[in-house]
Specification:
heterotrimer; A mainly alpha (212); B mainly alpha (201); C alpha/beta (433); B: 201 residues; mainly alpha; extended; C: 433 residues; alpha/beta; Immunoglobulin-like; Rossmann fold; 3 domains; 5-stranded parallel sheet
């Protein structure tokens, strides 16, 4: 019984139903349920973080132990992890909070994490270009349509566009406000109807892949 | 301006270059930066989690405010650890069931609210060609997402119009984002040339 | 009472003469001469009080209307409960016309349901001083005074309004339409379920991205390469992530049948553990539990670009023959899809993020657009229970289209041709929505 899926399915059903009911009833205790459940969710999710750390570090410790390919880099990963955690503890002892701006922990964030993240993000400049280039060799009508609109909108948003034709920026605005908006709304309606379908299937226990 | 003498700026600059080396091909420098980012970010995540969850949401309410309701999510969270024990790992389904139930339960009413907002937003408050095109676009796009009908004949033609709208929208979104993405790159180059090398101001 | 009045008058006279002297000294530029004349304006009981409707209690709504001459003034609201006074809000723009006395993050108002409250407004031309704020809540303040003043200005005080009580509602009337539509969709769902049970064939149209799963897995196996399945950066509460997990089950079953390997780098630990179970069950179903390796479904990091960097690196080193990108994606979508393309993998993507879909369309071989992705679990399973929910969704679409068409017709006749009757109907429709 306990090993089966019946109890979890019953929990999903009950919790889901309580959430829906509380949406319509502002009176206590229902009115507060949404806030409470969000808080509870973050607590539960926090615990699972340790599962993730266990998976990641376990994998890399194994790599180091067996001297698998890239094991030296695995040491970098583990060392990075250990460094931040120590810096966090140290910052808390020294300044009362690891997030104090003088702490080594904050320095790691500002000078390691931020540049790494923003450089990864900026790789998109190249990828956007290569994806656009590929779309140039338009494989079919749809791809050509996508490309042409992309070029018009891109030109309409830079000063060169105005030089080509004063109507280009206006046309770009029209594309964004009319056909773009229409399709976005249509896709959005579909998505939320689809989400309703999935949610109802889950609450009723028809869809249960998450409980495999 | 001259080249930076701050060790921190040097670290940031070298890490930036290491990531960009990926554009050439996979190499030890990129690997170093990649593994370091993964290691550091998970360490940072754990520290944030300790501060925001354990201290702020569990320890303080429990010890200072005597809010014993927190024990419920605490127990549910601990049940996740049953995954470390083969015979009890099924117990981890309980917190997952709770999370999914809460998530879907919350999403149902908010999905409806979104639907209403979209339909309301589509209503033509003034009679213009643009508004007419919007309505046609929304309807044909919706028909493209009809699943229980074969897309043949009239429905096929209408859904064809729908996919045309979708592709124009995708193109527009694509074109709209390109400049924003390029400015990200310019931002990094500015950091390298100005903060690090001091070539430009 | 009388003593208070005398004190107040005395202090007023003193303050006036003081401010007058100051005005003289500074050349009279600081003060608006109108300030004194507006002293004569009687505010009366200008505040209209009501319980905030459709809330969980603990909130009072305060409304006011002022003539234009006072619209540039600041307003300060005081609440009285027995002898206890409290500043509800200070220095609001008088023209805003409304404030709510409720708990907020910055300000705990602690309005209790069923308690009688009285409210008074204080208007001033400039920001109210701390001394006056302190004075306004002190016991000796005479609530019937019409004006008070400090060194800088005169404050106009309204008559006290009230009493008012707050209460909690048992039903949020504003959400009635949601309730009705929820009932309709549930009804449609059950109706189609019943029809399906009676043997009605429910149809689902072709979704080409899903038909390509077999081809992708097959070709990857032929090349001796693994499959990579990326669930994006969503959590297990996100509907697209759940849809991605369902598709993962089907893909892994094919992977097991072809006796190849599947890699699932994860962003969220709960999604990771769930994915492990999904793959394990699929391998067991396919009769190959021996091929399942827990370590192939690994955690990367809960950092958007750290995750992108890690997955990119893994793609370059493991060189998967097929890459699935199914779930919730944000800016990292194109980083992943372009890297996948550069290693020559067949890519099948799907997400509900409309901002990312264009990139997937440009960089991947197949893309499941929005609802197609959420219908995927139905498409792959095709049992009557699942299919009836798709049918119900489609009926909802028809209803939406009908509403839009009605809106269009009313829009042409009402706001378009200015026929009053249709104009009213149109506005009614907007209001219902």
């Amino acid at each position: 019984m306990l090993k089966g899926k019946n109890i979890p399915l019953a929990i999903t059903f009950t919790v889901g139903l309580i959430m829906i009911v509380s949406f319509f009833i502002p009176h206590r205790p229902f009115g507060d349920i949404e806030q409470i459940s969000l808080k509870w969710y973050s607590i539960i999710a926090g615990f699972t973080m340790l599962l993730g750390v266990d998976s990641l570090l376990g994998l890399h410790f194994r790599k180091v132990k067996r001297k698998e390919e890239n094991w030296i880099h695995s040491i970098v990963l583990i060392a990075g992890f250990v460094m931040v955690v120590i810096a966090g503890v140290w910052g808390t002892i020294q300044y009362g909070s690891a997030f104090d701006e003088r702490s080594f922990f904050t320095y790691i964030y500002n000078y390691f994490i931020v540049p790494l993240q923003s450089t990864m993000f900026s790789l998109l400049a190249f990828f956007v270009a290569s994806a656009a280039y590929r779309a140039f060799r338009a494989r079919n009508v749809d791809a050509a349509l996508l490309l042409i609109t992309a070029i018009i909108v891109m030109l309409g948003r830079v000063p060169v566009g105005e030089l080509i034709s004063p109507y280009l920026p206006k046309f770009t605005d029209w594309i964004m406000e009319v056909p773009q908006m229409a399709a976005k709304r249509g896709i959005g309606l579909g998505i939320y109807l689809g989400a309703l379908g999935v949610s109802i299937r889950i609450i009723l226990g028809i869809e249960r892949s998450y409980l495999s | 301006m001259a080249i930076s003498t701050s060790i921190w700026i040097w670290i940031s600059a070298l890490l930036t270059l290491a990531i960009y080396s990926f554009l050439y091909k996979d190499n030890p420098f990129y690997k170093f930066a990649e593994y370091l980012l993964v290691g550091i970010s998970i360490g940072y995540g754990i520290s944030v989690y300790w501060h925001n969850t354990i201290i702020t949401k569990v320890y303080n309410p429990l010890v200072h405010d005597k809010d014993f309701l927190v024990i419920i999510p605490l127990l549910l969270g601990l049940l996740m650890f049953s995954r470390f024990f083969k015979n009890y790992s099924h117990l981890s389904r309980i917190p997952i069931a709770f999370i999914v139930g809460a998530g879907t339960g919350l999403s149902i009413p908010s999905s409806f609210e979104f639907l209403f907002k979209q339909v309301q937003g589509t209503m033509p408050t003034a009679f213009t060609i643009g508004n007419l095109i919007i309505i046609i676009g929304v309807i044909t796009t919706l028909i493209y997402f009809f699943f229980s009908m074969e897309h043949k004949g009239f429905i096929g033609k209408v859904s064809r119009v729908g996919i045309t709208f979708i592709m124009i929208a995708f193109g527009a979104a694509f074109g709209y984002t390109i400049m924003a993405r390029i400015s990200l790159f310019i931002g990094r180059i500015q950091f390298l040339l100005s903060d690090w090398l001091g070539i430009i101001k | 009472m009388k003593k208070n009045l005398v004190l107040l008058l005395l202090s007023l006279t003193l303050l006036f003469s003081f401010s007058f002297a100051q005005e003289q000294a500074s050349g009279g530029t600081d003060l608006n001469p109108n300030a004194i004349s507006s002293e004569t304006e009687r505010l009366g009981s200008m505040l209209q009080l009501s319980d905030i409707p459709n809330d969980g209690g603990g909130g009072i709504e305060i409304n006011w209307t002022l003539n234009d001459s006072l619209s540039n003034y600041f307003i300060t609201i005081i609440r009285r409960e027995g002898n206890i006074k409290k500043i509800v809000a200070s220095d609001l723009l008088a023209s805003s016309g409304q404030v709510r006395d409720v708990n907020s993050d910055e300000n705990k108002s602690n309005v209790k349901d069923g308690t009688e409250y009285f409210y008074t407004a204080v208007l001033s031309e400039y920001a109210v001083s701390q001394e006056i704020l302190d004075y306004l809540v002190c016991d000796s303040l005479d609530m019937e005074a019409m004006t008070i003043a400090d060194a800088n200005q005169v404050y106009l005080i309204s008559d006290e309004s009230g009493p008012v009580k707050s209460k909690a509602s048992w039903f949020n009337l504003e959400r009635l339409t949601v309730l009705i539509s929820a009932i309709i969709i549930t009804f449609l769902f059950l109706l189609y379920l019943q029809l399906a049970r009676k043997g009605k064939e429910l149809y689902i149209r072709k979704i080409s991205g899903l038909d390509a799963v077999e081809e992708a897995v097959g070709r990857s196996t032929e090349m001796g390469k693994p499959i990579m399945y990326i669930l994006g950066i969503g959590y297990v509460t996100d509907i697209p992530t759940i849809a991605g997990l369902t598709i993962l089950g089907r893909v892994s079953k094919k992977v097991a049948e072809y006796e190849t390997k599947i890699l699932v780098p994860s962003y969220d630990p709960v999604v990771m553990t769930t994915a492990q179970e999904v793959v394990k069950e699929a391998f067991t179903e396919a009769g190959r539990p021996d091929l399942y390796n827990k370590n192939d479904i690994m955690y990367i990091t809960q950092d958007q670009f750290g995750y992108a960097a890690g997955v990119d690196g893994m793609m370059l080193r493991e060189k998967p023959g097929a890459v699935f990108l199914q779930g919730l994606f944000f800016a990292e979508s194109l980083i992943l899809a372009e890297t996948g393309h550069s290693i020559g993998a067949i890519q099948i993507a799907g997400t509900t993020e409309t901002a990312q879909l264009p990139f997937f369309v440009a960089a991947c071989d197949y893309t499941l657009i929005g609802e197609e992705m959420m219908a995927a679990s139905v498409y792959l399973q095709k049992d009557p229970l699942m299919l009836s929910s798709i049918a119900a969704e489609d009926v909802m679409k028809v209803i939406i289209i009908i509403i839009l068409l009605i809106g269009l017709i009313l829009g042409i006749l009402g706001p378009g041709m200015h026929i009053e009757f249709f104009d009213k109907l149109f506005n009614l429709l907007i209001e219902i929505l």
